[in-house]
Amino acid sequence: MSTNKELMQRRSNAVPRGVGQIHPIFAARAENCRVWDVEGREYLDFAGGIAVLNTGHLHPQVVRAVEEQLKKLSHTCFQVLAYEPYLELCEILNQKVPGDFPKKTLLVSTGSEAVENAVKIARAATKRNGTIAFTGAYHGRTHYTLSLTGKVAPYSAGMGLMPGHVYRALFPCALHGVSDDDAIASIHRIFKNDAAPEDIAAIVIEPVQGEGGFYATSPAFMQRLRDLCDEHGIMLIADEVQSGAGRTGTFFAMEQMGVAADITTFAKSIAGGFPLAGVTGRAEVMDAIAPGGLGGTYAGSPIACAASLAVIKVFEQEDLLQKAKAVGNTLREGLLAIAEKHREIGDVRGLGAMIAIELFEDGDSHKPNAALTAQIVARARDKGLILLSCGPYYNVLRILVPLTVEPVQIQQGLDIIAACFDEATQ
Ligand code: PMP
What angle do CA 78, 80, 82 make, to 5 degrees? Predict the structure, then answer.
């Protein structure tokens, strides 16, 4: 049997250092909210492979659907010979994505690809080539999505400048002194200083920022963004790669914002651990690109489509949207109780089960406490809990536990977090 240490050594010889790793662990198997490493140690998984496992590891229905699909076909390439699961999934998503208008859906494999394609579609539909994205945004690791992503190090550091025509607006975040007015003013500033609105194809926004720190926009802000887009013929793109697929208590976070995006991207938990992503938007906008302009060899793989159809069924059968709200409430209450004892926790926030705490030195929101955050993540791992940090200063602890979690496991996780804070701050 190999140890984690031996495998980490082999990894450093075989895999480039640019592929980071949060926990020095090699996983051997997993089930719902639990993971076992190669040494047989069990962990409670509050990371969900970065927001991919809203239905847990290897949900039996997802496994069954994939096994059934594997007996039929695993690949034809949808652009060569189409297959029904792709079509069925698009029909369902055209209904599920918010927006009271006819929609069409494109399937791809990763979130980055989804965002890339969303912008391509917006450019073709508007015949414009500028894009506005926000501070703290994360949209992916391809060249164009790195332009959209609002954090240079580590994502594009050392790689030179990314493609142009992306303009940066302020993401509204009251905790750090950016009001909705400030954020809207920053867009007007772009229109005045950098690019006329007639040259902007799209405004891309995460309704709840993921990697950027789990900051939710308000419905009032989204309404203002919608109005601005309508006024200038700009496509509003909601990147729901992390906030979508039920994490926030509605299938898409935009359902809670009172307005619909023209184009929506999704990925991650949509297929319960299989590589699938996509773009859903206004039918006429989605048709702006001519035949042959969209697609990919593996885009919308039959295996991933079968998994996704099962995930959507599981959501209904197990009432997982309701569960997301309940899990979110329990986590929020538990974390607020911990925060009462530890002034380093300056904020407990989230939408549905997309919950985070932000850590400051002496409770001062100007002093992000990355060191303590890293310490809590490491201590929690030693106690058998897998956590993730995020945020521009790595001082946010986020929870992306499967929504299929048992109540006792949530409590177990909260107890470990409480113990880590007690030990780290004594
Ligand atoms: N958009 C958002 C909001 C994300 O959170 C991510 C992944 N963290 C991406 C896009 C990119 O997705 P992927 O890693 O599948 O390319």
Answer: 40
- CA separation for the pair 296, 318 (Å, rounded): 33
Render pLDDT for 268-289 as a digit per residue (tens, 0 to 9). 999 999 999 999 999 999 999 9
Domain 4-58+319-424 falls under CATH 3.90.1150.10:
yes
Q: Which atom of ligand 1 is nearest to the CA of 137?
A: 3
**pLDDT value, residue 231:** 98
Predicted pLDDT of residue 271: 98
Distance CA 222, CA 202 (A): 14
Pocket test for ligand 1, best of 113, 138, 156 (most atoms within 8 A of CB): 138
Name the percent of the chain lying above pLDDT 70: 100
- Domain covering 73-317, topology: Aspartate Aminotransferase; domain 2 (3.40.640)
Mean pLDDT of the chain: 98
Q: Which of 93, 120, 125 has the alpha carbon at shortest distance from 107?
A: 93
Mean pLDDT of 411-421: 98
Q: What is the ipTM of this complex?
A: 0.99
Does residue 112's CB lie within 6 angstroms of at least one atom of ligand 1? yes
Report the atom number in ligand 1 closest to the C-alpha of 209. 3
Say if 4-58+319-424 and 73-317 have the same CATH topology.
no
CA of 337 to the centre of ligand 1 (A): 31
Q: Are 323 and 403 in contact (CB under 8 A)?
A: yes
Q: How far apart are CA 314 and CA 309, in angstroms?
A: 9
Q: Measured between alpha carbons, how far is 348 from 354 in angstroms, rounded to an integer?
A: 11
Q: Is the shortest distance between the CB of 111 and ligand 1 below 6 Å? A: yes
For residue 1, is pLDDT > 90? no
Tell me, using a 6 A CB cutoff, whether residue 271 lines ligand 1. Answer: no
Q: Cα torsion for 260, 264, 266, 270, to the nearest 10°?
A: 50
Q: From the CB of 266, is ligand 1 less than 6 Å away?
A: no
- pLDDT, tens digit (0-9, with 9 covering 90-100), for 209-239: 999 999 999 999 999 999 999 999 999 999 9
For the chain, the structural domain boundaries read: 4-58+319-424, 73-317
